Amino acid sequence: KIGKTINIGYAGKIAPLWGVLELIEVSRRLITDGYEVKVHIVGDKIHRNTLEHPDFLESTRDKLTNTSFVKWYGGKSREDSIDLMKGMDICWAYRSKTLEHNTLELSTKLLELMSIGNPIILTKNNVHANLMGSDYPYFVSAEDELLDTMKQIITDIKSGSESMEKVIKSAKDYTIPNAKLIRINPLLKDVKHAYASVSKKI
């Protein structure tokens, strides 16, 4: 059961399309709506400034270090990062649809989170739908769905709903060896087929 404080964890790259600033903003809105939230962020690689995001590095570092409900751990080993995520109520894996809809990348960090068994919020795309199942309850298709989905996860955790039971039960499949046999090998075949089709067109 969830405690008074809702612990939300993220481990990974800190970049404009990787959803870290959205995590902080959605958490701020949860607090405004009366939730008690603590955000835990692991990652020491803050993306450099770009033409599209000219002050990303400085602005993000300021938010990571000076936001009262955010605890920034910097870099951690894979093992320590996983251990920290095990203690979270919700794991954050949302990334911008601009990124997710233009990649065939399968994140090993996502597999690690899945093996933990905590609810994960993430963007729906073909790769994730094949991996998680198209009916996974905590997919989002756009940024404006994040707040309501987070509230739904919290409600489901508190009530022990069927959605939450499904998440916990399915986690047993996602040790890395099992995931490879059950989900990844078929997924890789789909990706290779898609790539071959694109290559022929080119």
Summarize the structure.
This protein has about 200 residues and is α/β, with parallel strands linked by helices. It has 9 helices and 6 strands; from the N terminus they run βαβαβαβααβαβααα.
List segments where confidence is low: pLDDT < 50 over at least 5 consecutive residues: 179-184, 197-202
How much of the sequence is in beta strands? 5-15%
Strand order in the largest sheet: 3-2-1-4-5-6
Average pLDDT, all residues: 80
The description of the largest β-sheet is: 6 strands, parallel
Oligomer: single chain
Work out the helix count: 9
What does this entry look like structurally?
It is a single chain. With 202 residues, the protein is an alpha/beta fold. 50% of the residues lie in helices and 13% in strands. It has 9 helices and 6 strands; from the N terminus they run βαβαβαβααβαβααα. The chain has helices at residues 20-32, 56-66, 78-86, 97-100, 108-116, 126-132, 146-159, 162-170, 176-201; strands at residues 6-11, 37-42, 70-74, 90-92, 120-123, 139-140. A 6-stranded parallel β-sheet has the order 3-2-1-4-5-6, with helices on both faces. Strand 5 (120-123), helix 6 (126-132) and strand 6 (139-140) form a beta-alpha-beta unit. Helix 1 crosses helix 7 (146-159). The termini are far apart. Residues 179-184 and 197-202 have low confidence and may be disordered.
